[in-house]
Amino acid sequence: MHLTYHQIVGRRVVDRDNRPVGRVVDLIARSPDDRTIRVTGLLVGRRALIQRIGRDRWNLHPVVVGWSEVADLDDEHIRLRTRRDDLRRG
Amino acid sequence: MKAVSPERYGRIELGKHLVDKSLLDRDDLRCGKVDDLVLDLSDADPGRPPELVALVTGPLAYARTLGRVGTALARGIYRLLGIRDPHPVEVPWSRVRQVDVMVRLDLSRAECDVNAVSDTVRDRLFAHLPGA
């Protein structure tokens, strides 16, 4: 299945209890080798948005959701398999 | 090394480090910008991290993200410009040579097929200017 970047960014993220976490602001990726780039996580929420528009120096520590925590993607939401309180900040 | 260098960027953030960057062909000529990215999700293994497989550029690439109304509006504008069949172009990630302040491709502009807008503007507007 193919998805585009813009189909993921902006989607609402909810935890396993359907509690809102925020919207996806950006996708974090890593390059395990020179030829491949894999998405490893999502930057989520208002802190990520403020950091994204240029306030890096404030050390806002936005919510970072690892891809392994994503349980399901539908047209509107990204549902996590973890609880909101257990998410780490980047 | 062709890809986005983690040494250069630390953590790679796709929106920050790839989307909206200018594309350069193999002759260092501009050939558009990165409007969107195509990610491949494994059906067999949903837990496997999605892989970046292509960059999307060209007519309607960004407009597609604005829904049906945005797409229809953009299509109408392109048709007014004289582009009969505007369509976005997917550049395979394997044809990306390097990412720095720009995205350098291992393709020529003709192979990219992204010059519909600039060619049309050149032919319909600038070609008629005296001295052009």
TrEMBL record, chain A:
Q: Which organism is it from?
A: Planosporangium thailandense
The family database entries (Pfam families) matched by this protein are listed as: PRC
Q: Which segments constitute the PRC-barrel domain?
A: 4-80
- What is the name of this protein? PRC-barrel domain-containing protein
UniProtKB/TrEMBL annotation, chain B:
State the source organism's domain of life: Bacteria
Protein name stated in the entry: Uncharacterized protein
Q: Specify the species.
A: Planosporangium thailandense
